[in-house]
Amino acid sequence: MSSLPLRQAAPADRRSAAAPALALYEQVKEFITRKIQDGSWPAGHRLPSEHELVAQFGISRMTANRALRDLVEQGRVVRQAGVGSFVAEGKSQSTLLQIANIQSDIRARGHDYRYQLLSAERIAVSPDVAAWLDLRSGESVFHSLCLHHEDGLPVQLEDRYVNPRAVPDFLNQDLAAMPPSEYLVRYVPFDQIEHLVDAVLPSGEQAERLAMPTTEPCLLLTRRTWTRGVPVTVVRCLHPASRYRLGSRFRADGNPTSS
Predict the structure, then answer these.
(1) To pair with 96 at 20 to 30 A between CA atoms, which of 17, 169, 219, 247?
(2) Is 92-247 assigned to CATH 3.40.1410.10?
């Protein structure tokens, strides 16, 4: 591996006119980050070891360790004890401005998608769901629970309630073959969407389904849709924060950009 000298501080009489030199560990981080960002080191690529960084840059072992440790904390690098450091996989991302098809998003990244219907039933509505769907206490509501996987790893637990007045045939569909979100987007028109995002800790049951510890935070996306003022569905999508992120890109007029 060729040596790349670290940048030297400017002489005293030039420092006022030049940007201050980066600390040595920051320079190592910048070098590694640039390799990741320009695609030279893709996800899964093994990084130089601390020993190799010491030899390459002429720095101390402590400096090399700090650079790698900071990159791990930023989510750019993962370290495996006794094996080495590797470029981390980028987190999955979904849009906030429209109803995303998680299956299409995952497959567009070249990853494997698997869907699992855990339950679909008609149940008595709880007070909070009744308020969300403008139903009376004691009425029934359709409820489905689904799990979405990316490359074999669960990335979304979908907990959905559907208004029987708006979608009376919901449970007559083959929801094991077509996810509820896909069916609703295809066949039930909507003209309003509301999105709320919260940071939460999962319950024991949720953590078990998502194969994660209960101490790890999650992103909770709550979505409601309406058609002609009638609530159609409310869904709570729970994502392990370490595996998923939510974001949007839009024009100044407020409309999302085309992908």
Answers:
(1) 169
(2) yes
